[in-house]
Amino acid sequence: MKKIKMAAELSTSINIKEPRWDQSTFVGRAKHFFTVTDPRNILLTNEQLAHAHKIITDYREGIVSPGLTEDELWRAKYVFDSAFHPDTGEKMILIGRMSAQVPMNMTITGCMMTFYKTTPAVLFWQWINQSFNAIVNYTNRSGDAPITVGQLGTAYVSATTGAVATALGLNALTKHVSPLIGRFVPFAAVAAANCINIPLMRQRELQHGIPITDENDNRLGESSKAAQQAISQVVVSRILMASPGMAIPPFLMNHLEKKAFLRRFPWMSAPIQVGLVGFCLVFATPLCCALFPQKSSMSVSRLEPELQEKIRASHPGVERVYFNKGL
């Protein structure tokens, strides 16, 4: 009979600081993010999260829980990663976690694309969307420096105002074009809003920098240049993440609304739209998160001059620095 690998045999040398799959390849990153963004993670209880937290913190200190297998260790790591911030270690706000992206975004995006014809509806759903984005951007920020309530409030108001103004402006411009083009207004507004919301919600990183390390995780300082690269990569992946769910359903809905079924049951329009968006997001969310490595890097020569000097003086052999880009 095949012997089951027992906990006592589990090596303490497994590197759980890094994802299970090779992050230098797109396929490895995609497997990682399909696990991280799994919507089932939001159903985990506080007890399950606490259990995973204990397994991981114990393992990092060289303590292996009795009976623990390697698969159980990796499962605990992904439960831990889905709920706790990589830099601060804090438990993240439930709706701000990446596992909440698909159910939250499919509902909000579906409604934005169903109720886009009147100004109050545009105002309401763009405000809901930007409020949600603000929570996600704050929850998935990079770095461990605290952000004040004042900074958070200013960032939220400016990001939301900019995004809603963009949506209303675009809506006004499309009043005299075909209905199909009108359906793409929410997508254009979301794309423009991401360019405003993410940098504003993470402005502290741009002002003060994010922690950078060498390849062995030794902290070398804080860099604003690294923050610029991190935030621009997140903006690109978020816009692309929204693209399939906001570009494919308009064509399908435009076709379906001419059919007898939706003419008889017009109230079915919103649930169908939400379902279509959800189907797209289940794949788009992890695949677009995987476009860039989570542990991003850049050459020392691209950092601020004073930081370059400091690193070359204290760590002369270091050519590349690493940082968490956020999500």
TrEMBL record:
UniProt keyword Iron, yes or no: no
Location in or out of the cell: Mitochondrion membrane
Transmembrane regions: 272-292
GO cellular component, one term: mitochondrial inner membrane
Domain of life: Eukaryota
Membrane topology listed for this record: Multi-pass membrane protein
Principal subcellular localisation of the protein: mitochondrion
Entry keyword set: Amino-acid transport, Membrane, Mitochondrion, One-carbon metabolism, Transmembrane, Transmembrane helix, Transport
UniProt GO MF annotations: monoatomic ion transmembrane transporter activity
Catalytic activity as recorded in UniProt: L-serine(in) = L-serine(out); L-cysteine(in) = L-cysteine(out); L-alanine(in) = L-alanine(out)
UniProt keyword Oxidoreductase, yes or no: no
Any single GO BP term: serine import into mitochondrion
Family: Belongs to the sideroflexin family.
Biological role: Amino acid transporter importing serine, an essential substrate of the mitochondrial branch of the one-carbon pathway, into mitochondria. Mitochondrial serine is then converted to glycine and formate, which exits to the cytosol where it is used to generate the charged folates that serve as one-carbon donors. May also transport other amino acids including alanine and cysteine.
Name this protein carries in UniProt: Sidoreflexin
Naturally occurring in which organism (per UniProt): Oreochromis aureus
Taxonomic lineage of the native organism: Eukaryota, Metazoa, Chordata, Craniata, Vertebrata
Gene name per UniProt: SFXN1
